[in-house]
């Protein structure tokens, strides 16, 4: 059983509930082992109501998530694309541009931050977390420590960061974060191997349980990479397997489904496949997997864009919202919200207002897509350019 199943306890010593002793292993790579059987486990309920409310607030009609949780290295790549050095001052300036956009909260319900940003302030001394709250946007935090090679696999990866996650999550909560994000990936050209799928699912489940135990709504992100020349049917097959494993282990770890958000990739052909799928085809295959594998108790499906163009990501989301769904089907985009913003800004103070307008245009477009009312009429060519990079790392 997961430690998230029981009342909050001191993680450094054996625990006692009645006459039953437990050995607690937070953040480990294997299930918690009880030294005696417990007939009536005590649920960790102190955050349950708050978790459900936070998840429902993020999954509110016409709104989605702005992901600006790029690591410093990845943010540096973005800045380099417009000729800026990767310095804390430049990263702060860019994220300040995004988070001070007037009216952003009308279309954005949550923003995922990198740790540096969570503790940063604007140039006039206002904390970014306070700025977000005032805009009716819930602050979130990336908590994983990135991908590393998975021994014994077919050149695949696993996501590290469980060690110390409980204490870090508690500190993030104190700082004002109310949800978390953990991204792991599955590669279709690499198999994927059963080992990689199981490792991805187990890691996400352990992270989710630890997050909920510390007051953070976990965004569960099993990304199936776009890399490959496989047809859409192969992606569907892999997605079914991955999502099945993820929800099996979430249940094994007693994760509260009403207090999570799922951040999957859309079911598309491989980026190098000879035939491109229409938004209607992508919507059909993606919704098929959702209906087969995702419990309706999950309040929100916040799709990642994964290298699609800004317009593609919005059109595909719109197609999925042409009929009612058991969940709030929305977006959690990074590049698909930021690409036009960066190119408009160019690091120049005189372009800040125009860049913020670019962000609002993209945020509003995806808000309309969440409501099933988007049209690509009038979109410029820049927004139609794909952003897939083979072997892309974050």
TrEMBL record:
Family annotation (Pfam families): Glycolytic
Keywords: Chloroplast, Glycolysis, Lyase, Plastid, Schiff base
Any one biological process term the GO annotation gives: glycolytic process
Pathway: Carbohydrate degradation; glycolysis; D-glyceraldehyde 3-phosphate and glycerone phosphate from D-glucose: step 4/4
Known EC number: 4.1.2.13
Domain of life per record: Eukaryota
Family annotation (PROSITE patterns): ALDOLASE_CLASS_I
Family classification: Belongs to the class I fructose-bisphosphate aldolase family.
PANTHER family membership: FRUCTOSE-BISPHOSPHATE ALDOLASE (PTHR11627)
Name of protein: Fructose-bisphosphate aldolase
């Amino acid at each position: 059983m997961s430690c998230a199943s029981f009342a909050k306890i001191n993680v450094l010593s054996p625990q006692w509930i009645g006459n039953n002793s437990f050995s607690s292993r937070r953040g480990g790579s294997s299930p918690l082992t009880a030294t005696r059987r417990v007939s009536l486990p005590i649920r960790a309920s102190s955050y349950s109501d708050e978790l459900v409310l936070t998840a429902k607030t993020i999954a509110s009609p016409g709104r989605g998530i702005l992901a600006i949780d790029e690591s410093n290295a990845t943010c540096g790549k973005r800045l380099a694309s417009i000729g800026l050095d990767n310095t804390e001052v430049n990263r702060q300036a860019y994220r300040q541009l995004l988070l001070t956009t007037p009216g952003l909260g009308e279309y954005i319900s949550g923003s995922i931050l990198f740790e540096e940003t969570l503790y940063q302030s604007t140039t006039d001394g206002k904390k970014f977390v306070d700025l977000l709250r005032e805009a009716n946007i819930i602050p979130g935090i990336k908590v994983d420590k990135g991908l590393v090679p998975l021994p014994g696999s077919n050149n695949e990866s696993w996501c590290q960061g469980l060690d110390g996650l409980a204490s870090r999550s508690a500190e993030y909560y104190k700082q004002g974060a109310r949800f978390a994000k953990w991204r792991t990936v599955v590669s279709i050209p690499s198999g994927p191997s059963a080992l990689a799928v199981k490792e991805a699912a187990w890691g996400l489940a352990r992270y989710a349980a630890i997050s909920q135990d510390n007051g953070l709504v976990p965004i569960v992100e099993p990304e199936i990479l776009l890399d490959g020349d496989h047809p859409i049917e192969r992606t569907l097959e892999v997605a079914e397997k991955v999502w099945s494993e993820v929800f099996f282990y979430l249940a094994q770890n007693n994760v509260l489904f009403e207090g999570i958000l799922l951040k999957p990739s859309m079911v598309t052909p491989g980026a190098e496949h000879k035939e491109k799928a229409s938004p209607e085809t992508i919507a059909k295959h993606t919704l098929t997997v959702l209906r087969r594998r995702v419990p309706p108790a999950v309040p929100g499906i916040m799709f990642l864009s994964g290298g699609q163009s800004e317009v593609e990501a919005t059109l595909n989301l719109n197609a999925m919202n042409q009929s009612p769904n058991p969940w709030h089907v929305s977006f959690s985009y990074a590049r698909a919200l930021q690409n036009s913003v960066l190119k408009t800004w160019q690091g120049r103070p005189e372009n800040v207002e125009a860049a913020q307008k670019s962000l609002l245009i993209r945020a509003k477009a995806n808000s309309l897509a969440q409501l099933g009312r988007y049209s690509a009429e009038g979109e410029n060519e820049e927004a139609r350019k794909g952003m897939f990079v083979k072997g892309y790392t974050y």
